[in-house]
Amino acid sequence: MDIQDLAKRVTAGERRALARAITLVESGRSDHRKQAGELLDLLAGAGRQALRIGLSGTPGVGKSTFIEAFGMFLIEKGLKVAVLAVDPSSARSGGSILGDKTRMESLSREKNAFIRPSPSQSQLGGVARRTREAVALCEAAGFDIVLIETVGVGQSETMVAEMSDLFLLLLAPAGGDELQGVKRGIMEIADLILVNKADGDLKPTAMRTCADYAGALRLLRKRVYDPEGFPKAMMVSAVTQDGLPEAWDAMRELVDWRRAEGHWDKRRAQQARHWFEEDVRLGLLSVLERPETRTRLNTLGAQVAGGEISAARAAEELIDHLQNPASA
Hints:
It is a single chain. This protein is α/β, with parallel strands linked by helices. Helix content is 48%, strand content 12%. The protein has 13 helices and 7 strands. It has helices at 3-11, 15-26, 30-44, 63-76, 100-103, 105-108, 131-140, 186-189, 203-217, 244-261, 263-286, 291-305, 311-323, and strands spanning 51-57, 81-87, 113-119, 145-149, 166-171, 192-195, 232-235. Strands 3-2-4-1-5-6-7 form a 7-stranded parallel beta sheet, with helices on both faces. α1 (3-11) packs across α2 and α12 (291-305) runs antiparallel to α13 (311-323).
């Protein structure tokens, strides 16, 4: 693969080249990882930045419907939109449906939109392991907005906040979780809470739900990177598009304030540091998959199962072996 040529085609905005580049960075093969690193280094010099928007919500809240309506709204304003949708993987087969394009029929036909579904595989936190690198590729390809749709697994789904500039939490009216707003976790990292399906018979219920969450947000500790009035709860309807302009205005207001106050660049630097440390941790864990280490792991595991040695002692022996392989 000619990485130099691929980098040029990605920066030129070629959709097929972007899709191929994302496939490359998602690969776990060692030769592909080396090529992916080279590609990302080349594209880092492009200096392009997109607005990264993470979006989460419980299954059935209408994430895909909202993203299609919001994406079409942004495209009508002359913006280019990329959607990175993470689908849950089966714990048994490891497969994923990857059906987001079929749920965003209108958006998938737009020339200024790019939709890429990816399997979560064994990654926790609601995003795939290489989603961050896919975001960087979309930025280099010239997209103005990158929407990161997470799996939608609940309060532990906070990893997306480490790769986005804004985090939106999408909720349904009368979901039975009005008091969840006082809990820490996913509520604590939300910049905007959007109560979806605020139309028809559900509109009065959506108003009450929005008021409940607005009250709950006031109980959370103030964050230094928020202006007065944020985070806030708002109502939207992906079907009628009511509330989308107001939500977009709130997003721009928050982004403009963070840029002016220096929080944007500081946050991006912190995220880069976080992912450096995360890659180091994942690299260290990959050592456990080496054949010789796997053999020793199985041997010690059998001894622990047979009661010959304690789990803590076996773990100490394995770690000591990894740190001092010559002494074994």
